[in-house]
Amino acid sequence: MAIINRTPDSFHDRGRTFALDKALTAAQDALDEGADWLDIGGVPFAPGPAVSIEEEMDRVVPVIEGARSRTDAVISVETYRPEVARAAFDAGADVLNNTSGLHDPALADVVAEAGASLVITHSLADPRTPYPRPRYDDVVSEVAEFLRERAALAEKHGVPADRIIVDPGHDLNKNTYHSLELTRRLPEIARVGYPMLVAVSNKDFIGETLERAQQERVEGTIATLVVSILSGARIVRVHDVAEAKQAVNMVEGILGWRPPAYVRHNVD
Fold it and tell me: Is the pTM for the entire model greater than 0.90?
């Protein structure tokens, strides 16, 4: 899953793809580098300036329309607003990626009406709201229970179980120790019973663990992706598609899920 942020204040690309032409170019580049999925967002998860519903639609809908006109790849919209989700589905999106933990159950209604799919992410704060010094008795068991409850809620609102994906929400209302423990114990999240997505790309828990600045975390991200896949992750959300694609393909080759591109060594 490639990240396409049409925001001026995203934590990693800092507005690099905010302009519409830049966002569309980034989407095409990601596809060329092997992305299977484009995740398009117009408002960051973190607290920041207010963005109206109309402005968020203006940011994401043209990118979704432009991407859909050129690819059959999966397209998701990252939003916490039912109105934006509905407009995104009308524009050609397949999935709602909701980092607010289904804070508004009406989101599930929109997904069900559209026959779309839903990513439910663990987070504790209301959208765009600070949540300082989060505390857990057992972060993994609490995240797993949260995801079970929210998935059940989505099903009650008409989203079929086979259209639900769960994301433990690395760094979202969690500190570095929490995110590291989640990564160590990802098989427990996988046992929740839905396909698991991990969104770890260039995040602060990697930077703090390795003492690396925001733009120097590719190697740490790849290591985390490999551990995550071996622990049950089936979708990985990334900024650096080309590097991540090579790592994912190698893991799949080792696990026997993907044949080698070619075999010449010691076969003659």
Answer: yes
